[in-house]
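Q: Structure tokens for this one, please.
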Amino acid sequence: MKTRIIAAACGLAILLAMTGCNRDLVEYEPLKLQTGAQNKLVPAPELNTPAHLESVKVVLSFYGEQWQTNSNGKLLITRKLSNDKELVWNYTKKAEDPKFIENAHAQRSKKLADQQDVR
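A: Here is the predicted structure, written as tokens:
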């Protein structure tokens, strides 16, 4: 009996630790592709404007990513997403695509209208 309780407590502790790690939020940093001898993804601080951040929120919401803003207005994303540099770069590019943003807004409006029709 004692062994089962200890095993259950250990399992619960591991599960809580794993869940907590995925929920860590870090500041969003836009990325761009630096071309040359070695193509690599590098920070793009010039994109970190209020308009870009609003577009990134649209992209993140469209793809169901968790995000929030802190008290300083900084955009926070999950550490897991932040570590996936190619996906962050992809989201950064989509945020700079006015057509994508327009389509994402249209789909969101349609989804909200459909939900209202159901009620």
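A few notes: Confidence is low (pLDDT under 50) at residues 18-22. The two ends are 51 Å apart (CA to CA).
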